[in-house]
Each structure stands twice: as structure tokens, then as C-alpha cells.
Amino acid sequence: MSLQGSNNDRPEAPSPVTVANGAVAAGNKGNGTVLSSLSLRLNPNQEHKPDDYEDMQLEFSAVLLSSLEKYLPPTMLNDPRDQKAKFMQDILLKYLPPTERNRAIKHREYRQKIISNYQPRNRELYTLNPTAVFVPSFLKAIHDNSEQSFRNILSEPSPGIFVFEMLQKDFCESLLEEIENFENWVTEAKFRIMRPNTMNRYGAVLEDFGFETMLDMLMEGFIRPLSRVFFAEVGGSTLDSHHGFVVEYGQDRDVDLGFHVDDSEVTLNVCLGKQFSGGELFFRGTRCENHVNTDTQSEGQRLKQQESLLPSGFVKALTSVPFCIFHYTSYMSMYGAVLEDFGFETMLDMLMEGFIRPLSRVFFAEVGGSTLDSHHGFVVEYGQDRDVDLGFHVDDSEVTLNVCLGKQFSGGELFFRGTRCENHVNTDTQSEEIFDYSHAPGQAVLHRGRHRHGARATTSGHRVNLLLWCRSSVFREMKRYQKDFPSWCDECNREKKERQRSSLATRMSVVVVVVFVVVALME
Questions:
Q1: Distance between CA atoms of 239 and 398, rounded to whole angstroms?
Q2: pLDDT digits over 273-327, tens only?
Q3: Any idea which of 92-106, 346-360, 395-409 has the lowest mean pLDDT?
Q4: 293 DSSP 8-state letter
């Protein structure tokens, strides 16, 4: 059950200049002079309230700059907003090669062309109204903002996988209408859109048609609070970007999705609905980069063989799938749309900041859950004329939110197989890491992006899912300088325990030999 690599799409960041206190040097301040006293702090000023950069024309996400502002030197915190924005963008541009900058400019022009020509059907979706979007129990937990309040609404059926009721039925139906309206416009205008990934052929990237702000709010206000608690070890408290999309599965869509990891620190996956059967998610443990392609256990191999036996016919199903680092979901799903591309960026900003980050701060602190600062939101579709399933993968995120939006379907279960770092992403699956999850409309699953998973075949119906990959630039930068093993990688932890057992056994053998020699000499 090998995972294909996708880290080669990431540019290698240059080594930062450091000063005596270990802070990262900021470079010049407009006049070409390098001032060593102007450097980012290693620890953020949590009491500082950053400026809002939403109304400025920027090279980078406004949410990213607001998050980075807390790391500015004390002497700059009260400077004019435009000066701080230039200072921070100058730092960030050092880490972005010219080819990446050109690609970013072209993508921005692509989004602007969509937003200038596409007429939304439900404009209220593009701003996040919490009472209209979320179920009351979820809102109360976020408002109380404590680990206990989060655990009151969450179930953790497998370590690191959190399931909870999230979206109201009316919101799911409205979002499905908007996605269908967008796809109809794409067909009529003969406009070629970017799909969420190469694994899903049906779906849309939410940021590409206006949902970026909405997804920002979702990540910052709702996902990051959860990730701070439950995914702290993978940057759950520092999520600062996202990739949101919807994907479709069904007879005329993709049927399933291969084994993969997401290109995210945390992934949210929500089923939006429609009628379907099948399509379960399967999880196979968390892996770091070193272990992402290690062998799976016999049970995992058996499950993979079963997944390849797809039914002869499928009814249309629409679902959202997480992203992967060694086989990007962006390259796995052929049907869907990127939400940021057609106007949802502000809404997603609000979702991440106000709802995801509070959760991630508690549950994913070890992977930057409290510093989530960017996102990638998208919807994916599964059905007979869409993608059917999704392969084994990891997401390109620190934290992933996956919500089923609905429609009638069967199948399409998610399967999880353990969390892994880059070195261990393909190591064997342990029995305790095996978990399958069945979608329900409006219900969300939140997990580390490095948690290996896939989506089983949607055997009938039509399923739609919303996904939001939340990322932490702070966590990703810190990983470059990490000397010891990542605590969140199950395989790294097993190797450490094995070394400890081996070392103890060696010491015990030495003690036995010494005792034997002493006894022999005494005789």
C-alpha cells in the first residue's frame, strides 16, 4: 500500500539569518540596509492584537500577516500598518523562489477572472454567520473554549481522529446549490477550472470562487481552537493557511480514493450529503516523512485488496477528500472545486480562525494546532460519473477538517491507518491503528494531515464533502531545525521504545555475564 511522493513540489526554503537571541533576521526595511536589531521573535506576543490586512493588496494571505505580526520585534508593533505589512512580506518573499511567485501571480489572475464573471446564487454563504452555519452544540463548545467543552461534543473512536456534529442541514443544502450553480456556469462559459487535486477529477477548490475569507474564519475561529488542544504536536496552535475543496464520488464520478496522506497539518472532512452507499474512510496510522512508505501489515494488505474489487456499477456520489503529502489529494481528486477560487476565502478564514484553531490548539498542539495561519478549502464529488474512491495518502496540512455535505449515497468510508512523519509514511500498519469511518451529512471528522487514510468506493448514490486543510507556517519552519524524532509519529515512537528495550536487554545481558564471572571467581 505504497504512498507516492509529493514533497518534491515544495520549494526548499533558504536558511534564515539568525542573530544572538536565535531570532530570524528580517533583512532590510525599505532602504536596503540590514538592521540586525530588527528580527522576528522566537515566541509570539499573545497579548498583542494584530491589525486587519483584509482590505490591502498583498502578496500573501491577510490572515498569515496577522498571525506573523505577533512575532514582530516590540519596537515595530505600533508602527503604521503599511510599514509592518511591507516588513513582513519582505521576510516571506525570501522563502518564495521566482518561479513560485510567478505561479502565485497567475493563480491570483485566474481567481480574479472567476470572481469577476461568476454570479453567486447564495451570497450569504460567502460570509460566515455562525448561527446559520453550525449546530448549537458546536457553537457552545467553541464559545466555552475549554478542553472539557470540546470533549463534551467530540468522540475519539481512534487516537487522533475526532468526530462531531458540525453543520446545519440548511447550510449543507445551500452550499450544494452553490457548487452546482458554479459547475453549471463553468460548463456554459466553457471555462477550464483547476480541480482540487489529480486524484479527484470531480470537485472544486472553494478558495477559487470566493470562499477564501469564509474559510479563513472557519480555520481561525473554529478549527484552530480544536487543533490547539488535540493536535498541538503537529502545529495545531499555529495553523495559518488552508486549502478547501469539495469532491464528488459516484457512478458518473470518481468511485474511490487511494491510500495517501494529506498535505496538511490538520484535515477537516465533512460529508455534505446526497444519497450514497459505501465510500468509507480508512485510516492506517500516522507517519512522518521517513516512514510514509513503509510496508503495511497483512490485515492492511487484505483491506487494500478488497478496495480494488470495485462494484460493477455506481450511482453518482459526491464527497470531499483530504490532501496528501506523498500523493497529494490535489492530484488525486479529478472532480470538485477549490473554494478560495470563487469567493469563499474570507468565509474560510473565519472558519479556521474562529472555530478550527480553538479545537486544534487543544487536540493538535504538537503539530502547530495553535498557529494555523493558512488553508486550502475545496469540495469533492464521488459517484458513477465522478471519482469513485480515493487512494491511501496523507494531506498537505497540519490539521484537516472533512465534512459531509449530504446527498444520497452508500459506501465511501474513510479508512485511517496511523500518523506518520516523512520518513515513516509507508511503514507497516499496526492493528491498533486500523479505523474505518462512515460519513453522515453535517458530521465532521478532524485529524492530523499526516494521518494516513483513504476513501473506499462509493457503491451507490451521490456524496459531496467539504474539506479544509489547515497549515501552520511556524510549525513547518520549526520542523526544518528539529533534531530529535517527531513525537506525533507512531512509528518514531515505536522505534524509540524498541531501542530502549534493546538497550535494556543489552545492559541486563552484561549484568548477567558480570554476575556469572564474579560467582565463578568466588568459587
A1: 7
A2: 888 888 888 888 888 888 877 765 444 333 332 222 222 222 223 333 323 222 2
A3: 92-106
A4: T
- pLDDT-derived band at 165 (thresholds 50, 70, 90) equals very high
Q: Are strands 458-461 and 237-292 parallel, antiparallel or unpaired?
A: antiparallel
Backbone angles phi, psi at 476, to 5 degrees: -70, -35
**DSSP letters for 248-290:** EEEEEEEEEEEEEEEEEEEEEEEEEEEEEEEEEEEEEEEEEEE
- How many residues are there in the chain? 523
Q: Do residues 256 and 409 make contact, with C-beta atoms less than 8 angstroms apart?
A: no
Q: Give one DSSP letter per residue of 412-448, joined into a string.
A: EEEEEEEEEEEEEEBSPPPGGGEEEE---TTEEEEEE
Cα torsion 334, 402, 92, 292: sign: negative
What pLDDT score was predicted for residue 446? 95
- The DSSP line for 471-492 is E-HHHHHHHTT--S--TT-HHH
21 beta partners: none
Per-residue pLDDT band at 26 (split at 50, 70, 90):
very low
CA distance readout (Å), 471 to 237, 263, 370:
10, 9, 10
Neighbours of 285 (CB within 10 A): 35
Mean pLDDT in residue range 153-176:
93
Q: What angle do CA 244, 1, 483 make, to 5 degrees?
A: 70
pLDDT value of position 203: 83
- CA trace torsion 389, 241, 266, 459 (10° rounding): -20
Tens-place pLDDT, residues 379-394: 888 877 778 888 888 9
User: Nearest to residue 279, comparing CAs of 459, 411, 161, 185?
Assistant: 411
Residue 512 three-state SS: helix
SS (H, E, C) 449-460: CCEEEEECCEEE
How many Å apart are CA 82 and CA 231, to the nearest integer?
34
Residue 403's H or E segment, with its range, is: strand 370-425
* Per-residue pLDDT reduced to its tens digit, 52-106: 898 887 777 787 888 889 999 888 999 999 999 989 888 887 777 777 778 777 8
What pLDDT was estimated at residue 269? 93
**Cα distances (Å, whole numbers) of residue 452 to 60, 259, 445, 496:** 30, 7, 14, 20
Cell 490591502 sits on residue: 56
For 139, how many CA atoms within 13 A lie in the half-sphere containing its CB?
A: 11
